[in-house]
Amino acid sequence: MEIYYFIMGILVLLAVLDLTVGISNDAVNFLNSAIGANVAPRHIILIIASLGILAGVTFSGGMMEVARKGIFFPGKFFMPELMIIFLGVMLTDVLLLDTFNTVGLPTSTTVSIVFELLGAAVALSIAKIMQMDGNLGQLGEYINSGRALVIIMGILLSVVVAFTVGGISMFFTRLVFTFEYKQRLKRYGAIFGSVALTAIVFFILIKGAKGATFMTADMKQTISDNSLMIMVISFVFWTVFLKIWQMVSSFDFLKIVILVGTFALAMAFAANDLVNFIGVPMAGIHAFILAQTLDSPTTTLMTGLEGKVQTETILLLLAGVIMVITLWLSRKARTVTKTEINLARQDEGEERFGSTLMSRVLVRANNSFVKGISSITPAPIQKFVSSRFAQVTSDIKKKEKPAFDLLRASVNLSVASVIISFATSLKLPLSTTYVTFMVAMGSSLADRAWGRESAVYRVNGVLTVVAGWFATALIAFTVAMIMTFIIFYTGTTGIIVLILLSAWTLWKLHLRHKEKDESQIEDTDRETPDDTSQAIEYYTKRQIKTIKFLGDLYSNSVHGLFEGDLKILKDQFKSLKNFETNINKLIKAALQDVRDFEEDSNLMHDNTALGITTANNILFSLKEIVTSNFKHFDNQHTPLTEEQIGMLKPVSDHFAGFIDRLLKDYNNYEEGSYDSMRKASKEIRKEIRGIKKKMLKLMKQSDLKTRQTLLSLHILEHSEQLLVSLTQLYKIGH
């Protein structure tokens, strides 16, 4: 039995890890509306969410049944077999969720755990049937296929419901209140707020009470019998409270709705999703404890698990504490959060996702549909609707401007809370990620946040996330099945190997995320400068970082070419995307400043136009060098000869020296520095032109491949262009 104590310890450890990686992914569900609307400082939002989590974990007792008997029949397995299933599931879940966290994509912890349980149970059932010389037709005796189908269909249905309800709710809410909603809120906003808050109270505190571990059956029955009365009292109370609040306070009551909604959604998340993180280990603990009471603990079927098992409240609270700590400390949670806020924001900005054929087709189809509806809609109605959705200009500084307004945040939280809480009350483990994400996307679409300038990118972003959801199901099922087979047939050795391999993978994912953070040029959103001197200071700092990044990319790429190292070349090729993103941010910031500054000097306009051209030239030349180097080796072309490398190496050394000098002079600019830099650039370019001639002579005198010579000349040509552009950029910056 000693090995099972070891497995129990591993399950507990994996439960803690799963709580940390799970909350990092699912924090997006309840934080995004409050953070996206800038409703309060981040620490206030986190405090509210933390309280919601701690309250919600005590409501999740009923959900624990899903992990124990929702997917398979535990009475058909022995305790050792259940341990194999649970271990395979937990190893898969930790790795899968941390992978999605690292790349910044929200996925469903519910879908992952359901399909992992299904995959592991199917694998163990097949192995068991094969061992008894049975046939696969007996698989239905082990798998609770009916319940599994209900769970899966419930999850998929929630996606459609969430998007539709979110879009419809936002459309009519905006139609009533418009973007200039503050005056209208004074007249009938209390009704809107009370409806939202009443719905939250009803579905969270009343329906959700059915799963509370601290409430007696009589208490739950009393609440259930008086649901309508409590709902009416809640509506009246909130209406009166919000109306009085409007009269005595200037504080926007929508912030109250959002903060209460954040608490409610965090509570619903904890009640619904805690099973995804500790449900399997808890089932393992219950199986182990049950086995200890049996005469033959390893050879008796676990029929005792098919009944109801109460989960200890203290364990649920401990799990809640771990989630709260992770919520405050996790950097990956912020990475995932950025994805959804970026897709839902009202204004233009840097798009994380590109354009694809599918997104373009969908946008065109939508535009055609809208035109068709418009053609049969009377002009007065079209005019009225357009007037209700007219955008308003804002003097809020860019850094302080929210991604979307308080009204949309209120709708997002209210609708998502109602759907999730209602499903929780029915003990359906729907995906909180799917619901909150699709509600946010539906409200964004209805709010006309996806304009012509951003629609294809936003749609592609949604498609990417949804594709990731399907990948979650497939990967979870397959990997859990493979791990279960390995553990079943290799025993202790397989368990140790899988644990070590999983630990190594988690460490590599941690390093990758850390490197990703460090590799990005400091960023992104900035406060709009008050005058040109602040703008120049900002651009100077960003230019220094950009030039340093450029120098590293150039040197590493050329070094990889000389060494014939495909990995180095591939890494630099991937880094180009980050460099391009930051160049584009510089250009957009410059255009924004031209538009915002009252100053209208020809010098400012000339420098901005020249700076944009120069930045684009730098990006073009660097992309040509790095991409050509990578593709040359990726296509298995002949490496450069020693003679060619010997000619190119001095150029690479001179370029690196020029970059170092440029960075030094940026920080210690003196009169005449530009003339000195221009002279140095001219000397290197003169040497490059001489090397070009030698390169062509070498081609005539030896049996060189055309591609080798073209690549060498390509590097020389664009190195020369980079020197010209960098010198020009230095002049503009001073």
Describe this structure in words.
With 734 residues, the chain is mainly α. It has 2 domains: 2-387 and 407-516, no CATH class; 530-732, Up-down Bundle (Methane Monooxygenase Hydroxylase, Chain G, domain 1). The protein contains 24 helices and no strands. Helix 19 runs antiparallel to helix 20, helix 19 (532-563) runs parallel beside helix 21 and helix 23 packs antiparallel against helix 24. Mean pLDDT is 80; it is low at 521-526.
Topology diagram in text:
Layout: H1 2-36, H2 42-57, H3 64-70, H4 79-103, H5 109-131, H6 145-177, H7 182-207, H8 217-225, H9 227-248, H10 253-292, H11 313-329, H12 331-344, H13 357-376, H14 379-388, H15 406-425, H16 432-446, H17 455-490, H18 492-519, H19 532-563, H20 566-596, H21 602-634, H22 642-667, H23 673-701, H24 706-732
Helix pairs in contact: 1-2, 1-4, 1-10, 1-11, 1-12, 1-15, 1-16, 2-10, 2-11, 3-10, 4-5, 4-10, 4-17, 4-18, 5-10, 5-17, 6-15, 6-16, 7-9, 7-10, 7-15, 10-15, 13-17, 15-16, 17-18, 19-20, 19-21, 19-22, 20-21, 21-24, 22-23, 22-24, 23-24
